Write the structure tokens for this entry.
Amino acid sequence: MLKDAGIGSRSYYRVPAHLQPAMREWGQGLNLPGTEEAARTNLAVPISPVLTRADTDQVVAAVGALAPALQ
């Protein structure tokens, strides 16, 4: 749906911080379901100080149109 509206999006940080290789020593055995859910479901949309107000409004409208589908 975002793609159809011309809005680029992607997911970053698919692996939670406590499961990253650099954190294995400290993250082993931690039960952080909220962190793991956030890693599974995060979404990045365009954000930049150089976006025009019209660009920002377009991103907000496209994301807002997704809200009913996420309920």
In short: The two ends are 16 Å apart (CA to CA). Helices lie at 24-27, 33-41, 53-70. The CA atoms of residues 40 and 46 lie 19 Å apart.
